[in-house]
Amino acid sequence: MAVPxxxxxxxxxDPSPLSAPFWAAAARGELAIQAxxxxxxxxxxxxxxxxxxxGTAFDFAVVAGTGAIYECSVMRQARVVGFEAMVPYxxxxxxxxxxxxxxxxxxxxxxxxxxxxxxxxxxVHFEPYGQGDLQLPQFVLVAGAKAR
Amino acid sequence: MMPIRNxxxxxxxxxxRIGRHLDAPLGAxxxxxxxxxxxxxxxxxxxxxxxxxxxxPSRLNAGNVDGVDLVTxxxxxxxxxxxxxxxxxxxxxxxxxSSLVEAVHAVAAGACNYALVYRAMHSPHGxxxxxxxxxxxxxxxxxAPYGLSNTVMAFALPYSRYMAKYGATREHLATxxxxxxxxxxxxxxxxxxxxxxxxxDYLDSPMxxxxxxxxxxxxxxDGCGAVVVTTAERAKDLxxxxxxxxxxxALGLSYDHAPVQTLEGFMHSAKRLASTLWDxxxxxxxxxxxxxxxxxxxxxxxxxxEAFGFxxxxxxxxxxxxxxxxxxxxxxxxxxxGALGMGRLHGSPQLVEAVRQLQGRCGERQVQCSMSxxxxxxxxxxxxxxxxxxxx
Lengths: 148, 392
Description:
A: mainly beta, B: 392 residues, alpha/beta, two-stranded antiparallel ribbon, 12 helices, 12 strands, 32% helix
């Protein structure tokens, strides 16, 4: 497991060739999503073959990191080893502004878990992972933004 | 394409004992349920020449001891024993219904004459469903670092969207939960036999992963359900009331690429399965008078009521409020008590109940019915559904 941060022991990350550019960008403080060089469609998690055009060449496009909560859940029980100290915690699925249906997962930070609501505007926020220079993309509410 | 259209029949059904933590090992319970189903059909184990199963252990990080954590077709073949097998099948996704669909097709194609289908589930001692991910690679890289390795939370996500999109609340679902447990209270096989609950019990039940509370999740049990299928022609020679397979489908494919399960992904898959089943069976929602929809998580029946066309999309939480889906209503739903009332048995509470209701064997909870819809499984995990009929 990674070095505990604030009592949270995250699993050791073992990026694959497909996901390595995502984590390398996150280490630089950028949210980068796999994009097909043939049709420009973005995919997350990264895919080996573009399901839209069957292309196999991809870039990673840096996105704004803004979007709206698409689905969310608040974990109220210690049911995941390593995350006991974080309970209760909110997991949010964020639809990124760049493409309808393009979903990325994070925890909602900097707000009570009750603030995790479908439709709320959020932006990415990086925090140290506890493993080398890895950083974890997380989300915070955009102050004053209207829910979508 | 040649649809089944009543050419195959279910001729036997049974449960083992069902309980939270039984003294008997799972292997013994599987032997008990399968032998009872075979006897219920008026057959002997020597008649069985086909076997089909979904073998996966029912919990995360389970062991893989055959007869303890799971019961494979190999285990039953050598232990029952089944000396005359000519066909076997172990599906990788689904529930008892999807393995039954395979058996229906095998019987119709002539690969075997009498196929035994079962699902055996074990509830270990100690905490259930604790995720322990130490190292992660692949798509889990985008979930596990966030503490999103728990099954309840994974299934809470699409429900959060359903509630937000359509305005459904826990008050709405309470109607279904309470009715389900009232049905289970009339079912001697159910783990919650004679154990009804109130709306307030449900609303007060502790949250696991919002919006899902403990009472939104089926309880892990030890138990096994089993059925026997053969051709409608062979069924004539058996001392039983056959239940005919009017149509069946095993699909439940994920068509959308996403890091998590979504409401839209569920509905995309569920509607595809539903339209395929109606085509295959040659009937529609108006022909059905008994509903058995998988409720491993409480909100699933809402999605299936909409996908199968019993009500418009986004309205099932209102559709279930009146007496339509109560026993005695036009569309009694989960008269066995479902998975929430019977225990975590992966489709047996839907399948065996449909068979027994159509045979008129359900005692105090018997409803008037002639055509039953059976569906079990998650929309993205090898779901299986059947239309069963009392008349050929």
